[in-house]
Amino acid sequence: MSVRSVRTLFRGDVRVCYSQWYVVSDPDRWESDVPYDPRSGQTSGLCGAAVPGHLFLTTGLHTGPVGCTVELHESEPELDESWEEIAEVSFRPTHHEVALELWGGDGSFPLALGPADFRVRHSASGMDEACERELECLDGLVIERHLLQFWPAPPARDRLIKQTGSSAAYWHEVARDTPDPPTPGQLAESRRLARAEEERAAQDALRDAWGGHLPSERLLTVRGDVAGMQELAPELAVALDRLPPERQRAVARWAMRRAYEKAGLAGVDWIAPALAAAERGEPLPAPFDVQDRVGRVARRVMDDPAVPDTTVPPARPEHPAIRQQFLALPALTAAVEDDPLQAALDALFAAAVTYGSDYGTLFAEARSSFPEELGPAASAT
Fold first, then answer.
1. Which pLDDT tens digit goes with each residue over 76-93?
2. CA distance 69 to 93
3. CA–CA dist 26, 229 (Å, integer)
4. In this structure, are residues 156 and 119 in contact, taking their beta carbons and an 8 Å threshold?
5. I need a labelling partner for 35 at 20 to 30 A (CA). Which of 48, 168, 310, 340 fits?
6. pTM of the predicted model, to two decimals?
């Protein structure tokens, strides 16, 4: 075979760790796609090829530089028995990207291999000597060398051609003691079970985040202050989600009223009509009848000497004290939201921050006022 029929895909010294390096398809995904030992079912242990699209290459040196050459041949190359260790395996890329990869992402070197079946001859020398002189190798001495020769060939079993050193003998024995790879059906079942376990773990984590209750998709996607309610009282949020729309609206109006009463706003002459309109489901009167109603109302609150001016201890010590009247204002606009679930969540949260660090009292009042809807039994899993 002429020299022109050989292409060198890689040549250089690479630094191995844990006596391993790899040839992989789809380098971005390969680590998660190795579901069993790559030496499974083989007689040779230096080049594991049992996992499709992967080659698991073993060195005698634990950590340090080894020489590496990767060649692509048009046909089977002549056997060079000057190498101490020689084995052959079959390999087919599972992705258009193929690379020589080092442990832990320490290096990646593209290899121009197309989507075809290849035979791979893995030859190595210096494995035992490199292992014995590892301290010198750590200082940069290159003793161990590897050659990978690819050529087109149909799939076939792995073949151990030559074994010389004790390091190679050890890994060949490991391969022979490794069980055969799982069948496609067994692998599919294993992946199904793994996915099911991931789904269970995700559900458990979600349930933990919601106080032991599993939220619905509706609750997870509703707009508004659902995150605030999840933090303060997740079981109430779950219970609200389970109510029919008319009861969600009733809770929203109740929470609105409690917020405004707590802030001393319910009796203000220009605010009381708006609360009454919201409770009747009617359009809000001025100044609550415009899109920027919260800002407009807040300015009037600041300008009206008849409006109380109180602060409330914040729900969290690190938060600054805020005028209680401003905290209550969003409860009214929340109560008239088109979505009754969002209305209930937002109004109850606005009332909670109006109560500040005493928000537990509000939630106790809510459970007492709606015992069948928000009591302990209502939020049971």
1. 999 999 999 999 999 999
2. 19
3. 43
4. yes
5. 168
6. 0.58
